[in-house]
Amino acid sequence: MNNENMVYAVFEHETPDELQLFTTSHALAGEYKAKHHQVFGAEPSVVATILHQSLDLHHEMSDKTWLTLADGLKTLHENRLKHSVDQPEAQETEGPFFNVTPLDLPHDIAETRLQKLKIFMSTVNLPAERELIECLMAYKYSRPVNEDLFTEESRKTPSWQEQIESSERGRETEATLYRDYENVKRQNQHTAKMNETPKREDLIEEAQLLQERLELELLIEAQDEHFELIDEDYEDLDSAPGL
After folding, report:
1. 41 forms bridges with which residues in the sheet?
2. Which of 58, 60, 101, 138 could form a disulfide with 131 if both were Cys (CB 3.0 to 4.6 A apart)?
3. Which positions ≥6 away from 112 have C-beta within 8 Å?
4. How far apart are CA 90 and CA 74, in angstroms?
5. What pLDDT, in 10s, does the model give residues 13-62?
6. Is residue 139 part of a domain?
7. Residues of the chain predicted below pLDDT 50
């Protein structure tokens, strides 16, 4: 295989089971190999499988390597979808943990979303993984997000800033979301007390509601600050001489 089409996964020297970084640099991979690191090189979709299983590793790669692996994640997802069509018994029935990703999603929210996907790993979440890592890499390298790495649904969803400026205030849904989360949480706790394991879909629902609740709290805080500034501007205009 042409070296230009390869991605390398470099493992820690002292703990060879732990990944250290990803790179598309054949020279850098060679340097690590000379230092007796385990180095695995393959086409992007193959190495993307490792990234899918070790989402924290997005911290340890260059932007160039990420763009190559982003294509690999897309191919991996397409290949697995094709496999599910060819093998109906292998199809996953659960829906995606996150349906859309706003293009300007704050990096701290993108990080917590990615951690949720690490807990509830699933092929269906590969597009969201790709979007969230892109949000984080864009933040890390101080560049705009590459919209081509987002689904059409995500590109059309209201941006985070639009949600902040929306007349639909987050506080209007806060009580309902809190109640729904507490109900599902109590149900799962009751199941556990009966020495039974809660169903995966119930655990996912609890985690989704918790994430929504955390994001809503941040949205409400941002909305309060936004509308407070608007009120201050109006007060300044009202108190201006001659008005």
Report:
1. 8
2. 101
3. 211, 214
4. 19
5. 888 888 899 999 999 999 999 999 999 999 999 999 999 988 777 788 99
6. no
7. 86-87, 89-91, 236
pTM of the model: 0.88
**φ, ψ dihedrals at 179, nearest 5°:** -65, -45
Looking up tokens 């850098």, which residue turns up?
28
Virtual torsion, Cα 101, 107, 111, 113, nearest 10 deg: -30
Whether 209 is in a domain gets the answer yes
β-strands 19-23, 39-42: how paired? Answer: unpaired
Nearest to 47 by CA among 83, 4, 9, 2: 9
Q: Is 37 exposed, middle or buried (0-12, 13-18, 19+ CB in 10 A)?
A: middle
CA atoms within 13 A on the CB side of 179: 4
Tally of structural domains, the chain:
1
Q: Is residue 22 part of a domain?
A: no
- Residue 38 belongs to some domain of the structure: no
The CA distance from 132 to 126, in Å, is 10
Compute the distance between CA of residue 87 and CA of residue 239 in angstroms, rounded to an integer: 71
Check: CB of residue 159 under 8 Å from CB of residue 102. Answer: yes
Close Cβ partners of 119 (under 8 Å, ≥ 6 residues apart): 207
Residue 242 is part of which domain span?
158-243
